[in-house]
Amino acid sequence: MLSEKATRQSTDLGFLADGGELGAMMRALDWSGSPLGPPNQWSRALKTTVSMLLAAQAQIVLFWGPDYVALYNDAYAPGIGANHPRALGRPAIENWGELWDDLEPLLSGVRQTRKTFAAKDRAFYVERHGYGETSYWDVSYSAVPDDDGSVGGVLCIVSETTERVLGETQLRASEARYRELNATLEQRVAERTAERHLLATIVETTDGQIQALDLDYRWLAINASCADAYQRIYGKRPKIGDSLHEFLADRPEHLAAATAIWSRALAGEAFTSIEEFGDISFDRRVYEMKFESLRAPDGTRIGAFLTGIDVTDRLEEQARLAQAEEALRQAQKMEAMGQLTGGVAHDFNNLLTPIVGLLDMFQRKGIGGEREHRLIAGAAQAAERAKTLVQRLLAFARRQPLQAVPVDIGRLVADMGELISSTTGPQIQVTVDTPEGLPEAMADPNQIEMAILNLSVNARDAMPEGGRLSISAKARTVERAHGADLVPGTYVCISVADTGIGMDEETLAHAVEPFFSTKGIGQGTGLGLSMVHGLASQLGGALTIRSTVGAGTTVELWLPVSHAAAGATDAEPQTNLRPLPAGTALLVDDEPLVRMSTAEMLRELGYRVVEASSAEDALQRVKDGLRPNLLITDHLMPGMSGTDLGLALRNQYPELQILVVSGYANNEGITPDLSRLTKPFRSDELAASLANLTKAVR
């Protein structure tokens, strides 16, 4: 079996798993000599960017850090020739030295200004095959932010255009020579018949496609390159004297397209056009064609001719580049949205804590008359809705703590049937299908129940006139790369399908974006699907949606199968017993309102409360002689964190009871042996946590 360290390292390198040859090379490379250090210690931003570029089909190289350390993908490697693979993980100056005076100002400019540098057919002098040459590239250099917001590196999405640029240069030269000859054709025909042979030789040997038709659509001239093109796309070659109508008589649609464009040229119009031609059974290619009139020595129009080039590969490369740029923009947008929503949720939890605590106290003490009781109950219900909204924000931002355990999904879905039926109403026919022997999935049962309920409510709203709602769970195996970025393996797939109004393509494209909603004002937060999407991603699964307008929607939640022994999926019931007065409680929180609300709860529970606004303030009070029985501390505070404070005091007083309170809903930085309570909380939730602390001491 793999050791725990090896398993952790393997997990840390998961972002390299689908990276092709370069991904495998990065996993095997000795990074001790690289300025970046080992990949498992890279920043999250660097890991995310490398994962994206390794999976991309476009040519991408990332220059990271002040040394511009190079990281690139399979598509980019051939473009640097003999510099691969020694360039991988090394400062750029070591392998791009011959063009460093040209490249370094571009990279440093992007780092300093954060502005994208883009250019078409940019010339670079390179020595990649043992000799110097001038190459041409379409380039887009963009700044990539690191975890702390600073510029971590420069992402270069490139496409080599050397072959096309040189070909177009040669074609332009040929066209220039041809126009020069054509301008003096009358004189040359009269004076030097020998030059006809020279012109024919040039036309015949050029790589550009040249052909001429008379007014009856018969070929007056066609060079070898153009005849080769017809052979490629139609399986046959025209020759001088052939009729275009007869040549494409067996393909009426192709004939109509060809005569439509040639008729403009034969009518005297000079123009340039980009069109796609060819029989799909052979090949379809895109050509850039320039049409001009062909005239006799006396000026009479006798036909038309074209010069053209095959631009299929160039257009496909441009499309791939645009797709890669769009994917990068979307990844950066979603990452920024996740950071924003996580921070807002943290602050919102701090604001909700005194509100929830105060309303809870009013209800427990029965303050006011019947009217006041109704108002307080309504406010408490609104606070609970706000708390749920924050949980959805955190789930979207992937900052919601998950208690992932082996879960019997079949039983969980079956047990929810009655709840879903009562929620959706009598107009909706609900069916639940869960086969026997379904494997356990690694999931948080409470979050999964909330996700299924969210999806069911969405389905209900999509069937205003009634319909059928089908909920099922099946074991599914993914053997190769999945469209939802699922790694190969076994999953439990929960399906929620309705017969409602469905979604069009534009709505479907935005369905999981936060705050996007098709419902009216006040009828939805737009966080339902985004919350489920974030939950699935946190658990290592995925969310897929299929929908057709008028035919309904099917949403599938994929969860990885658990390989651990099945555990209890029911949360331990919270006790309503209030702990006995236990002396002095040291309460630490940098938010005064949160501190005030929590202090009042503790006093009601029988504690003498000493308040501190920071960890440093709390340590000073202990140094001055305070001997608390209980420490309740916020986790994230300016200066020392609450977790570090708890560990410091535990070293001095092992019998001290410690409860860490967090508004960020994130376990990061909190050691597993410290009890934890999430903001906002009511008095009974605080009492239950303190009761559990008392049990642990006993």
From TrEMBL:
Gene3D superfamilies annotated for this entry? 1.10.287.130, 3.40.50.2300, Histidine kinase-like ATPase, C-terminal domain, PAS domain
Top-level taxon in the UniProt lineage: Bacteria
Bilayer-crossing regions = none
- What's the Enzyme Commission number for this chain? 2.7.13.3
Q: Residue limits of the Histidine kinase domain? A: 343-563
Residue ranges annotated for the Response regulatory domain, each copy included: 584-694
Any Pfam family hit: HisKA
Q: Which reaction does it catalyse?
A: ATP + protein L-histidine = ADP + protein N-phospho-L-histidine
User: List-wise, which residues carry 4-aspartylphosphate?
Assistant: 634
Q: Which UniProt keywords apply?
A: Phosphoprotein
Protein name (Swiss-Prot/TrEMBL): histidine kinase
**Source organism of the structure:** Bradyrhizobium zhengyangense
